[in-house]
Amino acid sequence: MTKSHLLHEIKDYALILVGVCLYALGFTVFMLPYGLTMGGVAGIGAIIYYATGIEVQVTYMTINVFLLAFAIKILGFRFCVKTIWAVAMLSFAMWLFQRLLETPDPANPGAMMLPRVIGDELFMASVLGSICSGLGLAFCFENNGSTGGTDIIAAIVNKYRNMSLGSVIMACDVIIISSCYFIFHDWARVIYGFVILFVASMTLDYSLRRLNQSVQFMIFSRNADAIADDLVKDGHGVTVLNGEGWYTHTDRRVVVCVVRHREKSAMLRLIKDIDPYCFVSMSDANSVWGEGFDKMKVADRRKFKSKRPLVCATNNIVKIEQAQKLLGDKYDVRSLYQIGCDTSKELYSGIFEMEAGDRCAYVKRHFGFDTFYFSHDGKTVFIEDDYYAPQFDIKRFDTLEGLMEYLEKKKK
User: Fold this and answer.
1) N or C: which end of the chain has fewer CB within 10 A?
2) Residue 164 and residue 263: Cα distance in Å, rounded?
3) What is residue 2's three-state secondary structure?
């Protein structure tokens, strides 16, 4: 593990801890003392607490142990390690806040109670508690963690479908909140529970949108090449459009670049340092999908399962047809031209001067597809490693059939 990766992991765990503390604060200070119920496993724990006196963290931890056993296989070990951390820290935080806040109960000598810090304002307590809880959940989800319970279900759905986390949690929690009627026999508390659910969900969605929001820059400059070069050096994707200034009828080049909202100030400084007199248009981009941003989580409307793309690093029709005949039933074999690598253009014209392995590595790095090539000695060269990795694992097979056997073995 590199130093930068280690620091990133430490940051994730620290921010998840901040999130669970916010969640525990809202729950312990603004909900438990007022007999309010929220969704999720914490809501189940609250109902059991009101009915039996068993503290919330005990029920919360017990239920999540079972849920996490199922989540490890679906969400992956890394996600669940951070979720285990969040669940453990939230259980501890709820216990700690209760111990710090509890005071002697004047109605029951020897017993302890949680004070109502804002008087008898149930509505204000529900709003403040739900805002704290929603912010806490946003911190956890943004840093690859979860507070467990229905959050795990929401994370699973969000992984495969383009559904907001808040909406999924809301759908899962309606029954939990409604069940508090059987404890208090008071529909007002059920309504307060739905207020908490709604505000927490909206807070979660709003917070995640703000954290993930991007901005699109359109830069009209006489020094567009220098701006584009510096943006690429900073790791941004850039498109340069050719245009014409209609008043002067002179050529203009327009630099288009989409960056995260937090990088906006750095972008403006870079642009101003190169061309302080350029014209810049900046607009919010709430949803950005593609390289370096989010993945499109939508269902495939086609009735068949899509084939895994494989690029044959050539435009030789005979070789392409040979590969498609052998691999086409299970793989989508494409030529260089079919992925946008037009070797007749200057940008890609030097690709055939590369060694076979370097050619595959180039296609993998810049286009992202698993790639193979027929070398001059008749072998099939294949590369499938992560194209962000500094080293590529290049495999050589005596025949194309050998590559197919390798791919089929990896499937199993």
Assistant:
1) C
2) 24
3) coil
